[in-house]
Amino acid sequence: MSDLLERLRGRGWRLTAQRRVVAEVLDGDHVHYTADEVHALATERLPEISRATVYNTLGELVSLGEVIEVSTDGRAKRYDPNAHHAHQHLVCASCGTIRDVHPSGDPLADLPAEERFGFAVSTVQVTYRGLCPACASA
Amino acid sequence: MSDLLERLRGRGWRLTAQRRVVAEVLDGDHVHYTADEVHALATERLPEISRATVYNTLGELVSLGEVIEVSTDGRAKRYDPNAHHAHQHLVCASCGTIRDVHPSGDPLADLPAEERFGFAVSTVQVTYRGLCPACASA
DNA sequence: TTCTTGACTTAGACGACGTCCAAACCCCTC
DNA sequence: GAGGGGTTTGGACGTCGTCTAAGTCAAGAA
């Protein structure tokens, strides 16, 4: 994660305690937290950090390409720190758990030119849905 | 669309003016309306229909499999009446326009068993993002 | 046809999630 | 170590969606 902080400083980021804490929270396991969960975890380390700052920082990390925004259901967006390795998501339709998966094939190549309607297509997001083992047996 | 109404009646739906109007709105072109847009269009035909009823009816149509719920951004969900033909979506990152597309290949087959983590995977949603011609030239 | 009943609808309050703003703050440079 | 502009704060606000209690009505029974 010091890597991340280095990269950010190199891009002209002013390094504040708040930003460091948010980055550290995301650096943990490859879990996909909501903004509120990030805020809760950040508060444990820096009690007075505000919700607005967490949203601002997450938005900046997304636009810098360090974090990916995932909205799997219509609910809260989740933030995926695993932005530097191409991957897709497997979501439990019941409990909402998200796992990173690595399908074979390149979905971008599967969209022929005549199906692009003149769009400049840049990214593809593939979301697999189903029941996780725990929910399937419940 | 009378097809749809027939199917719904066959499933025990009580046929009310409100439900008929919502179904008629969705039956139009293959546009992807938000719930509020559906409500606005329904209001033109049945002035006193309430927001809650539109949400209820859309939810029922989704759980009956007659309509697909699409949440492309974190904003309002959109409702896709083209539920009986497999297709994916192409979204403009700038203006939010959605088009139905038909990529080749089967993304479900691209997820090997060892990448399923015991999930019972049932559906795949593929979303292509890019700029539509109008936004690209702006 | 009329009756009856329980499913359906309604309006508005409420809740979750996210954004915006002006004032205070503080990191960084010189 | 002083100044300036980027950053943070917290609370109001906005959007999207859900819930509830009371009234209404579609559809089967007689």
TrEMBL record, chains A, B:
InterPro entries in alphabetical order: FUR, Fur_C, WH-like_DNA-bd_sf, WH_DNA-bd_sf
SUPFAM superfamilies registered for this protein in UniProt: Winged helix' DNA-binding domain (SSF46785)
Binding sites annotated in the UniProt record for Zn(2+): C92, C95, C132, C135
UniProt keyword Transcription, yes or no: yes
GO BP, sorted A to Z: negative regulation of DNA-templated transcription; regulation of secondary metabolite biosynthetic process
Keywords: DNA-binding, Metal-binding, Repressor, Transcription, Transcription regulation, Zinc
Gene3D superfamilies in the cross-refs: 3.30.1490.190, Winged helix-like DNA-binding domain superfamily/Winged helix DNA-binding domain
Top-level taxon of the source organism: Bacteria
GO molecular function: DNA-binding transcription factor activity; transcription cis-regulatory region binding; zinc ion binding
Cofactor: Zn(2+)
PANTHER family listed in its UniProt record: HYDROGEN PEROXIDE SENSITIVE REPRESSOR (PTHR33202:SF22), ZINC UPTAKE REGULATION PROTEIN (PTHR33202)
Name assigned to this protein: Hydrogen peroxide sensitive repressor
Natural source organism: Streptomyces sparsogenes DSM 40356
